[in-house]
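Example (one chain per record):
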Amino acid sequence: MNPQSPSPAPEPDRSKELLLLITQHQRRIFSYIYSMVPDRHDAEDLLQETNRIICEKFDQFTLGTDFVAWACQVAYWQVRAARQKFARAKVVFDQDLMDAVAQTVEELRPELDLRHEALARCLQKLHPRDRELVLTRYEPGGGVEEAAKRSGRSLDAAYKALGRLRKLLLDCVSHQLDLESAS
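Predicted structure:
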């Protein structure tokens, strides 16, 4: 095999597993990258590069092990490699700080996973119109104006509804976590 040629695609039977894992954990991988990168657009670019490398190296991943940890390790090295680009930015994180953030995120991952699962359950409890408002507001490139437009609400009504829904979701997530810690 020519060393310049790209890595072969994952075996056909693993392609579905790759697609499932990368789709299921995309937000967590992005959150990890964004915790170390000062600019959202740079984080999105790094996510795409990380996804490319995950696809290329998926044959090295052992099914049944922690995909998020493996993917975040790939992302970590992508962020490190991109540090020269970020050195020209106004906000620069030094390597020690970046390593500390990465370690903290890894230590908090079990708690963050529980919170993420609780939030998903709480979002499902919302009225579909309210859920769509929240999801539109927080999707990449989304905003309150877009959420208001899609939901047919005025901008003022959307701000008020989002404030109410954030409080409702916070209370619901707290309640879910309290129930889980009690059991």
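Caption: The first helix runs from residue 12 to 24.
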